[in-house]
Amino acid sequence: MIQVEDSNQLLLLVKRKELASQSVFKVVLKLQTWPKKDSTKESRLLQLPNEILEDILHRTAKIERDDGCQFLGWQYPEYRYSDLKSVALACRRLFILCAPYLWRDKEFILPREDDEKSDSVPVQIATDILSQPALFLPRQLGSYVRSLSRDLTNAANYDLANSSLMARLVCNLRALRIDFHSKFRLEHYGIKFFAQHCPHLSELYLEHCRDTYDDFNSLLEYPRPLVSLTLLSCTIKQTTLQKIIELSKHSLDSLLLQRVRLEPELIDYHTQSPPAVTTIPTSVYLHLFSFLHLTRLALSDSLSHSVLEQIVQGSPRLEKLAIIIHETSPILVTRCIVLLVQLDRLVILSLAFRRIHPLSVVYERIACFAPANVWTYFASNLPNLHLIHISASKLLLHADFFASILDGSRCRIPHIMLHHIAWVSGTSQQLTSLPDDEALLNEYRRNVASAQDNIEAWQQEPIWQDACGSFLTWEQASAKGFRCFNESDRVCFVQGFESWTKH
């Protein structure tokens, strides 16, 4: 138990991260009544400058996420509200210091149409809350808000008047998330209000937002270079997407596109149904990634070797990557894996081999057509990996793949999940360069000829003793609560991922 004697020691321990955040808040409250040498009860904590007090609050209230095991498009709230509230109620000065953090991250959920309203509990409208004057300071509460999350999925309410007023109230907004109802709208979504009235807007997370009425063009009309862009089940015009990415080419750090489709360029103001959409073509991806410098990227469209090559060349400092490969040539698949090895800062990799059916969520899982020694080379050359998830209908592996990631019974990679691994006889020859095409094809054919799809083949290997609990049949994985496997996954390998189990 660390003994804290005075406020100076508290600050030192906080900076060194030697004191847990929950303990700090208990100490902060206790500091209010630490006696001076003359035994009076005057607070010694409040003798510290505001800058030091604010630094203590910032360091101790901030939520520490295990960033090496998560891939989040929305990373808010940043601070623990309950802890800040306890400190804010201690005295007026601490309340003033805590106020910006108490209102920094706000979330508003649109009530369901069938929600029962209580006569005893008044329903507060979000704009009424944000327009309230701040206590002790001449400003509105909305001016404190830096991240705003709005859940509008409970009703197909256009909410445009409310959006217009809300955007004016959160004038210092940095990050905006809106989850819209999936029903097609006959007018715009109100994104332009936030682009117009929030000059510091740099992070955007949107779900079910259609660009039929040029919503996204407002980010160009009021130029807002983005740091982070997440679009889920959205549509956007091709020229608008390209211009937004080009506008943000020096600032964009995170890009997540899931089921994003392209709208027709011309607006049909008389349409009563969603216009026909198309998938993002390879040529557009090649153009976009030619000048981006990302550290986080996630795409739900399947990619070719040429697009992956452009991604690696343009963003060599990628730390988190989630992609789908549709190549079926052993030569091109091998080149894809070798490209990934060049990303030496990679912490999280989610890699799937699939054939995606255009304009639908249906896909067909395909095999990874790469020889086993390429995966051993991969495992030996990415020392910073914390999480790897590879999904394929078959993955050819030598036993020494696992020898390169296991340190005794401990796995060097804390979270690893591999679907349908097939045992391949022999050991991998150390790769120093990419073999010529003929040698690569011959190696792949030998691997396919010796591959075995049963767990008994792995049991004969020395690494079985250290990792027998991680090799699972589909039945064993299902019994543990994993729902991400299917019957075709005859042998899987899982370390970590406890949060994925459902009992």
Automatic annotation (TrEMBL):
Origin superkingdom: Eukaryota
This protein's name: Uncharacterized protein
Species this chain originates from: Phycomyces blakesleeanus (strain ATCC 8743b / DSM 1359 / FGSC 10004 / NBRC 33097 / NRRL 1555)
